[in-house]
Amino acid sequence: MSIKGFHLIFIAIAALFFAGFGVWAVFFESAQEAGSAVEAFGIVGFVASAVLIVYGIRFYRKTKSI
Predict the structure, then answer these.
(1) What is the sign, positive or negative, of the torsion defined by CA atoms of 48, 50, 53, 59?
(2) Terminus-to-terminus CA distance in the chain, angstroms?
(3) Are the C-beta atoms of residues 7 and 57 closer than 8 Å to each other?
(4) Rounded to an integer, what is the distance from CA 22 to the centroid of its chain?
(5) Which of 19, 27, 28 minimizes the C-alpha distance to 52?
(6) Smallest Cα–Cα separation from 38: which of 20, 16, 22?
(7) What are the residue ranges of helices labelled H in the chain?
(8) I need a labelling partner for 47 at 20 to 30 A (CA). Which of 5, 12, 14, 17 fits?
(9) Rounded to two decimals, what is the model's pTM?
(10) How far apart are CA 40 and CA 50, in angstroms?
């Protein structure tokens, strides 16, 4: 496996991790006890996932000819 392939797989796994974290944080059952900080972390997780997806697409397009 090339470095390019590993990088793309690593970005995909990280994006899935952040999306899963966002879902967990938004639907956290004790969110009312923890306050809105957990929901804020969930939103940050979704934003990080979106940023990683955009970065992965741009990286793929940039390295397509390699």
Answers:
(1) negative
(2) 14
(3) no
(4) 9
(5) 19
(6) 22
(7) 3-26, 31-34, 37-62
(8) 5
(9) 0.83
(10) 15
Which tokens in the block code for residue 58?
A: 């741009």
Residue 33: CB partners within 8 Å, gap ≥ 6? Answer: none
- The label of the residue with tokens 């796994």 reads 13
Structure tokens given for 24: 């967990």
1-40 pLDDT tens trace: 899 999 999 999 999 999 999 999 888 766 566 667 888 8
Model pLDDT for residues 35-54, shown as the tens digit of each residue = 678 888 889 999 999 999 99
Tokens of 27: 């639907």
The sign of the torsion formed by the CA atoms of 3, 50, 29, 31 equals: positive
CA 13 – CA 48 distance, rounded (Å): 12
